[in-house]
């Protein structure tokens, strides 16, 4: 048994990188046990095996670095706000809403965004009420799913996630509403309700690309 074990260790030793000592050569078996191979052909287990070198495995996904992402900046007509968006994901489209200063379409054509700017200052709560009232006039079954207070460059804002129905098809919206002494901004993103889980992260990235001049 000991002879067979020695042959096994010698075989392992021939395919690993050894550590040399004055009285022998250190080697490590597959189960992490250290051994010393002496020049006279004898061997012995080491009392304390040398620390094993674990292979570092990266759990990070191969992502394009931020610097490599093509960005487009859109500035509002009055210079009050700016949107910076990923040109790989979004493309500018002619707006079907005459009140929208910009409309964007997601790369696969199933997600949309638009921004409506108004110079009239309105309190944030009233802006929210007006937005919901306007939605109720054109779609059905409007329901606020979540609401989160935010600040954009120091100005009060809210993030609303809204569900509604358009011609019997459920839709989901993820919107920013911002107000200040300069007026109001409604930044709206939307898609079919079944697609929102797939698009929500990209919608948020787009919304977070909004900045307002102080």
Describe it for me?
This protein has 214 residues and is of the alpha+beta class. It has helices at 2-13, 124-138, 196-207; strands spanning 19-21, 24-28, 34-37, 43-45, 71-75, 81-86, 90-93, 100-106, 111-118, 140-152, 155-166, 169-180, 183-192, 210-212. A hairpin with a 5-residue loop joins β2 (24-28) and β3. It is elongated.
Number of strands: 14
Q: How many domains in all?
A: 2
Q: What is the helix content? A: 10-25%
The largest sheet is: 7 strands, antiparallel
Q: Give the low-confidence spans.
A: 1-22, 48-62
Helix and strand succession?
HEEEEEEEEEHEEEEHE
* Name of the CATH homologous superfamily of the largest domain: Mog1/PsbP, alpha/beta/alpha sandwich
Strand line-up of the largest beta sheet = 7-8-9-13-12-11-10
Given helix and strand content, the structural type is: alpha+beta
The termini sit apart by 81 Å
Q: Look at the structure and give the CATH class of the largest domain.
A: Alpha Beta
**CATH architecture level-2 label of the largest domain:** 3-Layer(aba) Sandwich
Share in β-strands: 35-45%
Radius of gyration from the alpha-carbon trace, in angstroms: 31 Å
Q: Report the mean per-residue pLDDT as an integer.
A: 80
């Amino acid at each position: 048994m000991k002879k067979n074990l020695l042959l096994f260790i010698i075989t392992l030793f021939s395919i690993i990188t050894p550590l040399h000592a004055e009285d022998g050569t250190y080697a490590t078996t597959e189960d992490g046990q250290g051994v010393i191979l002496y020049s006279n052909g004898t061997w012995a287990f080491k009392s304390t095996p040398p620390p094993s070198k674990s292979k570092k495995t990266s759990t990070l996904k191969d992502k394009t670095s931020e610097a490599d992402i093509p960005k487009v900046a859109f500035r509002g007509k009055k210079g009050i706000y700016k949107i910076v968006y990923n040109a790989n994901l979004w493309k500018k489209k002619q707006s079907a809403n005459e009140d929208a200063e910009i409309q964007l379409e997601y790369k696969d054509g199933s997600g949309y965004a638009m921004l409506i700017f108004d110079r009239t200052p309105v309190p944030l709560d009233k802006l929210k009420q007006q937005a919901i009232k306007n939605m109720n006039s054109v779609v059905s079954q409007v329901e606020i799913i979540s609401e989160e207070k935010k600040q954009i460059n120091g100005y009060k804002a809210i993030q609303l996630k809204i569900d509604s129905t358009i011609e019997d098809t459920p839709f989901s919206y993820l919107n920013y509403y911002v107000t200040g002494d300069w007026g109001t901004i409604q930044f709206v993103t939307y898609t079919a309700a079944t697609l929102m889980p797939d698009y929500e992260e990209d919608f948020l990235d787009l919304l977070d690309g909004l900045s307002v001049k102080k």
